[in-house]
Structure formats: C-alpha cells, structure tokens
Amino acid sequence: MKLLHTADLHLGKSLHESSLLDDQKIMLGQIHDELGRDNYAALVISGDIYDRTVPPAEAVELFSGFLVRIHQDFPDLEICIIPGNHDSAQRLSFADRILGTQHIHIISSPEQSLVPVIIVKNEEKLAIFLLPFLSAGTLKVSEKSPKSPSVSPEFDFSAPAPSILISQSDLAAEASRRFSSVLATPELLGIPSVLVAHLFTQRGISSDSERIFLGMAEQVNPDLFSRFSYVALGHLHRTQKISDRMYYAGSPLAYAFDEAGISKQFLKVEIDCLSPGFPVAVTHVPVEPFRKVTRLSASFADFYTGTTWDEHAADYLEFTLTDTELIANPMNLLRSKFPYLLSLKQGIAQTDEGQTDDKTVSPGGLINPLDDFRRFEEMLHGNAEEDRVELFRELLKECTDEA
C-alpha cells in the first residue's frame, strides 16, 4: 500500500511581503505529477493547508482547483486532510460529509478521529486515523464516580466535572489513550494503521517559519503513538525522521530564510500490509521550487558590480553586507540586479560607539526601525532605556516573522 505524505502547504503565505501563490501552484502541480507516477492508494496532507485561519480567496481557489483536478485524474485515490494550527478547522471542513463520499476525507474534530478511513486495495487493507490539531479544551477526561440512582445525572452536582485538557502533551496523552482502545478492537488487530497528526514532538527540529509553542508541556512524547504502523506528522517544516515509523514530511517550500539550502520533499510511504509486523519503507521525493530561497554574504561592491552572484538573480534572496561602513539605500540599488531581493542585513557595520551591530535594512532600503526607535526614545526622554528597546525589538521580530 503506497501513500504520498506531505504537510504544511501554507497556501496564501507570503515571504517578506512577496506573494508565493505562483510558487505554490507549481508545487501542487508536482504533487499531481507524482501521484501519476506510481500506484498510490492515498494522498495524506498533515495540516496547515492554509497560512491563516481566514485565507485569501486566491488561496482557497487554488486548493479547490487542486482537489478537483486530483479527484478527476485519480478518482479512486483517497485524499486524507486534517487542519493544522494555522487553519480554521470549521472552515476547512466545510461540506466534509459530501466530500467524504468522493474519497476526500477532512476530519476537523478530535472526537471524529477515532473512526478510521479504511482503504482496501487488491488484497491489502489499511486503516488511516486523522487527528486534527489539538486546540486547548478539545478533549476532556471524564472522572467516573458512583451516582445515586434517585438523582438525575444533569442535577447530580456532587459528581466531579470533566477535566479540561489544555497543554499539547496532556491532549496527546488523552488521544493516545483513546486510540489504544480502538486499535485493540478485533476488526483492526490484523491490519496496519496510520495516524495523521499535526504535533510538535520531542526531538523535532523547528524552523523560523513555524508558529512554535513555548514550554516543554507543548512538546509531545512520540512514544504515545508507537502502536501505529506509521505516523504522518505535520507542523515542523524540516523533513525529519523521529523514529523508524514516524516522519515529518516538512513544508514542500521554504518559508523562511533559515531554511535556505535545505532540500524539500514529499514522502512516499510503502506499507507491506501482508507481512508480519507490517514493514514500512519511506522514500524522499524531491520538490523542485519555482524559485530557490538563498542567503548570501559579501560586500556591497561584490553584489553591485561583480558577477559572482548573478546566477542567483532569479532566487528569493537575503543578503548580508560585509562592509564596515553603512551603505545608504542598498536595497533599492541592488534590486536593479536582483529583483527578488527580499531582505538585507548590514552585518558588521560599525555603530557610533565603535561596536559592531547587525543592522537589517527594510524592503524600502531604510535602516532598521530599531535605530529610529532609539532616536525617538532619546528625543522624548533624553535616553533610550534598554527594557523598552528590548520590548520593541521583540515586537519588531514578531511582526517580521509573521510578514
């Protein structure tokens, strides 16, 4: 049984205010082409279909057209989709019951995830469980206690209230407990099972483009789901192996400059449904981006008048200038050669105090707003207090990351 595993499409996302819809359209086309190269039983998308809970209309239209094309060209293919933490589960699951009759399965509630999608192909049989992103409060632990037969349950205020689960680790533990009961049922004991989930597991490596949670309570122990034959994970943007049967497909495109130079891929998952233990083989299928995401470091003159870096003119670029003096309006000057230059840092330019500082230039070619904020603080108060500067720095980073 062959599955194509991908995740974190983030349709509608921009990179430093530059739309990636054309890149994403080509990437979706590569998914379609790969499905045509082999006899796949299912396409699995492990969350974060869109980049926002209210995605732009163009992104919705792009994904809708993709599903229509896939269903028309591969009518027997099962398409399994879950919402991630960037998605609105309710919006994504619109018309899910009708779509389910057309082999397009979208599960938006953790309660629904206990009913698997059963795939039968030739002599093989497989159960796929779809676990959407676990938002706080979406699962509860009910504490059972003896009830008085003379008291109606809705008026029995002595009974303890259900425990509402908040952290990702607690929610995942409760989901694991429920799955263990289902997997032990006779009808599922003799067939392999796949879990599709959107989680941040322990030992996972994150990237700047993810919305990462703070604290160990939000990291999930991967051993909770060791009973599954394969776990198809989403959320972390680097393709990575957590265990022999648990993988992050990673995002199919680079969505931050810290992912520059990292190859992106889909995962072909082959499960032997007829052999003892249900052996699994995972093959990386490379994704060829429309434009590469590239980081380069050199002097302004090397970029502006040299030819060394001209081969990257069509890439999405971040430059770090190595000049010891600040260059005025470097972004505007360099964009004449590098039209997709999106970020520029003046890496070792000297400050007024003679110390080095990492100065980022905005897309408009201006010095980092942090410097303007310092001057504004000095004008108002006579000095720039470091606690306010640090707060502004954090807010600036957050805004830049989200852009």
Give an overview of the whole structure.
By secondary structure, the protein is α/β, with parallel strands linked by helices. Helix content is 26%, strand content 23%. It is globular and about 70 Å long. The model is unreliable at 144-159 and 350-366 (pLDDT under 50). It has 2 domains: 2-143 and 163-286, 4-Layer Sandwich (Purple Acid Phosphatase, chain A, domain 2); 293-402, no CATH class.
Question: Key terms for this structure?
Answer:
403 residues, alpha/beta, Purple Acid Phosphatase, chain A, domain 2, 2 domains, 6-stranded mixed beta sheet
Give a nutshell description of this structure.
With 403 residues, the chain is an alpha/beta fold.
Instruction: Count the E strands.
Output: 20
Calculate the terminal CA-CA distance, rounded to whole Å. 40 Å
Shape: globular
The residue fraction in helices comes out at 25-40%
Q: Round the Cα radius of gyration to an integer and report it.
A: 25 Å
**What number of domains?**
2
CATH T-level fold name of the largest domain = Purple Acid Phosphatase, chain A, domain 2
Strand fraction: 15-25%
CATH architecture call of the largest domain: 4-Layer Sandwich
Q: Largest sheet, described in full?
A: 6 strands, mixed
| Tally of contiguous helical segments | 10
Mean pLDDT: 87
- The SSE order reads EEEHEHEHHEEEEEHHEEEEEEEHEHEEHH
For the record, the CATH class of the largest domain is Alpha Beta
CATH superfamily of the largest domain: Metallo-dependent phosphatases
Structural class: alpha/beta
Report strand order across the widest sheet: 6-5-4-1-15-16
